[in-house]
Amino acid sequence: MSDTPMVKAEAVHKSFGRLEVLRGIDLEVSPGEVMCMIGPSGSGKSTFLRCINHLEKIDCGRLSVDGELVGYREGGDKLYELRDREVCRKRSEIGMVFQRFNLFPHMTALENVIEAPMRVKKESRAVAVERARKLLERVGLADKVDVYPNQLSGGQQQRVAIARALAMEPKLMLFDEPTSALDPELVGDVLDVMRGLAEDGMTMVVVTHEMGFAREAGDSLVFMDGGVIVESGKPRDVLANPQQERTRSFLSKVL
Amino acid sequence: MADAVAQRPAAIEAVPVRHPGRWVAAIVVLAIAAYILYTIGTAIGNDKTALGPHTGWLVVEKYLFTGLIFQGILVTLQLTVLAMVVGIVLGVILAVMRLSPNPVMSWVSWLYIWFFRGTPVLVQIFFWFNLNLVLKSIDIGIPFTPLWLHADTNTLIPPFMAALLGLGLNEAAYMAEIVRAGIISVEHGQTEAAQALGMNRGLVMRRIVLPQAMRVIIPPTGNETISMLKTTSLAFGASVTELFTRQQQIATATYDVLELLIVASIWYLVMTSILTVGQYYIERHFGRGTQRGLPLTPIQRLRRTLFTFHAPPPMPVEAPLSLASEHR
């Protein structure tokens, strides 16, 4: 394992208009680490996640993935904005799973999964289809290959979305509340897939409200509130023995 | 549970409410419609035409299938198709320009739509038709090089081209707004998901946004096509020999004015009816993935009814997949 952190944030700030959403985030995610982020809604967790693959631009601070700055290139003492093509290339190495799945409704499950490998990585159809079938089997949907998203349940859709992200063979996976839009009985299947990924050594940053998942599958836990990291550490320590009053009051409401 | 089913009470039998008002309204409306049709129908029937007295309907019959009318129909169809192609292609470009982050693009598109939507089509057709009065030749080329093309305005814009330009450029303004509405209607999460996969702006637009926007774009585009088919009659203003001009030519020669208007109307109705059916099937195609199993087409429904000898059940053949396999 190299010692370059997969994600490194230093004093990351982000505002939407006059609303300051991130007020100085410092953290590191090592390769192979599963980091879970918890906190009340509006605390900036999702925004931070979106900054990592440049869906949002940060205002100040430094944010890098695998040793390279997100959205910029350093030349001498100046920063140069990256071209659209370079931003796209970097995004293609980072998988993202959304709360609302965001599957492409006009494509079948298989077409959803092969779209990016074929169009972005220019893979041949045969290669892309073969990998897609394996991935859909892995997430337990081998029999849903030719089905359109609206014929799938929420849990199935989210698993297709995970397969779609994995098809690009990312080095980092971002999960933005992947189970928050699901019926309680469907959450388990999605978490199982994510647990499997964690065991295989995938580097993951997971924004979640599933404390059970954070405790069992997470290597580290970050509690955010008001745009800052209030507390972080081993999941068991933070969940069982929170040091900060705000962490304690949050956990008492959700546990 | 079987007991509960067995104890189900008998179906309700009640005297239905009568609706005498509905009967009265229906009879009045039918009577008025019949009177109007009868009056005009007999008036045409009794008309003294080029063929002789009381031969109005015979004239309609005679000209309904004549070569001149067919030639007109052909030109009408050509104009409709070409003007819509110009309108749709240019409309998509204008819509994408309108939504471009480049303010100049957005403004140029806005100005185009403002101008071409704000002036009458007939004026625009006349404009192109009469352009040669002020502009004798058109020169296009690269500045400061000898690479220049020179063309006489009259040869470059014959009447058909003038009508096509007028109709097509005007249509583009309307199509731009339709396409823009379609693009905006696609949820932003779709763009984000595609971007997160590393797709660039062009790919996102072509592969993800536009195909989904089609569902919103197709119905009004169908309306536009049907409307265009009829608007081509304004090409009369540029002396293009389409259906309306053709019937007008015959009518001027024979004085059977109303009869030939009916001939033209029949053909316009036939063509718009065919377009309506086409629109249904195109909408169906782009609706895939939005309904759980597509509804049957009228022909499928008819076939089912004929071959099974009973009314079609309410469920579609391509039945929705059950979600029961969620927990296996």
Model description:
The complex is a heterodimer of chains A (255) and B (328). With 255 residues, chain A is of the alpha/beta class. Chain A is built from 9 helices and 12 strands. In chain A, the strands form 3 sheets. Chain A has a 6-stranded mixed beta sheet, sandwiched between helices. The radius of gyration of chain A is 18 Å and the shape is globular. By secondary structure, chain B is mostly helical. Chain B contains 13 helices and 2 strands. In chain B, helix 6 crosses helix 8. The two termini of chain B are 26 Å apart. Chain B has a two-stranded antiparallel sheet with strand order 1-2. Classes of the chains: A alpha/beta (255), B mainly alpha (328). The interface between A and B is large, with 43 and 30 residues.
Key traits:
A: 255 residues, alpha/beta, six-stranded mixed beta sheet, four-stranded antiparallel beta sheet, 36% helix, globular, B: 328 residues, mainly alpha, two-stranded antiparallel ribbon, 67% helix, 3% strand, disordered C terminus
